[in-house]
Design brief:
121 residues; 2,3-Dihydroxybiphenyl 1,2-Dioxygenase, domain 1; 2 domains; five-stranded mixed beta sheet; four-stranded mixed beta sheet; 36% strand; globular
Length: 121
């Protein structure tokens, strides 16, 4: 998965701190003004975070494209714990922790740049 962000370093730190991501070195193309990091998570999932001048914010919700990024934490206790930590660190919890109508246990937090991050069992 890849996503554009406003503040590359803030987003990289967020995913490293709260989700244990490891990062490659910064890639920067000065001609295009494009920069990115590849973040790798336990189990092999990868997320590319990118920034480039002129990429516009989309304020239309719902919209076509990425709705949220989800992380399976393995237990309700871990969902509760990480949700509480993110809230204490100033991130907005927009839902949960709760059991959804389809039986999932989850919460949703707004990460850097308002990215919806879903925490699930």
């Amino acid at each position: 998965m890849a996503m554009y962000v406003r503040d590359l370093e803030r987003s990289r730190s967020f995913f490293q701190r709260y989700f244990g991501a490891s990062s490659n070195s910064l890639y920067h193309n000065p001609k295009a003004g494009f920069s990115s990091y590849f973040l790798t998570f336990e189990g092999g999932a990868r997320l590319e975070i990118m920034t480039k001048p002129g990429v516009a914010d989309s304020t239309d919700v719902p919209r076509i494209g990425c709705a949220h990024v989800a992380f399976s934490l393995g237990s309700r206790e871990k969902v509760d714990s990480l949700t509480a930590l993110l809230l204490a660190d100033g991130y907005e919890v927009v839902s949960g922790p709760r059991v959804t109508g389809d039986g999932y246990y989850e919460s949703c937090v707004l990460g850097p740049d308002g990215i919806k991050v879903e925490l699930t069992v």
